From TrEMBL:
It comes from the Eukaryota. One of its GO terms (biological process) is carbohydrate metabolic process. One of its GO terms (molecular function) is glucose-6-phosphate 1-epimerase activity. PANTHER family: APOSPORY-ASSOCIATED PROTEIN C-RELATED (PTHR11122), GLUCOSE-6-PHOSPHATE 1-EPIMERASE (PTHR11122:SF40). This is Glucose-6-phosphate 1-epimerase. SUPFAM superfamilies: Galactose mutarotase-like (SSF74650). GO terms for cellular component: cytoplasm. InterPro entries: Gal_mutarotase_sf_dom, GH-type_carb-bd.
């Protein structure tokens, strides 16, 4: 994720302690839960690994984390494998 360099955020995992993002890009190697404040209009999401993407919005369906009218400003983007199915093997332990 790019476009949040220099933006302040509240870290949900640290009791909403306020920090400033100093990284050029946000990458994920552990759980991340941040509320970015006064964000720019353009945020870029890069994906890797899967060839497809899922973009969704719940619209008027109730989502516990969203307020009554928040659905109109909500979007989720996920990397996915939809078109070409990935075969996985089952490993059992003894």
């Amino acid at each position: 994720v790019e476009g949040l360099h220099g933006v302040n955020y509240l870290d949900q995992q640290k009791n909403r302690t306020r920090f400033t993002d100093h990284d050029k890009a946000i990458t994920f190697n552990s759980q991340l839960d941040r509320l970015y404040l006064n964000t720019p209009n353009k945020i870029v999401v890069h994906k890797e690994g899967q060839i497809d993407a899922v973009v969704w919005n719940p619209w008027e369906k109730k989502v516990s984390d969203l307020g009554v009218e928040d659905y109109s400003r909500f979007v989720a983007v996920e990397s996915a494998a939809v078109h070409k199915i990935i075969q996985m093997s089952v490993v059992t332990s003894s």
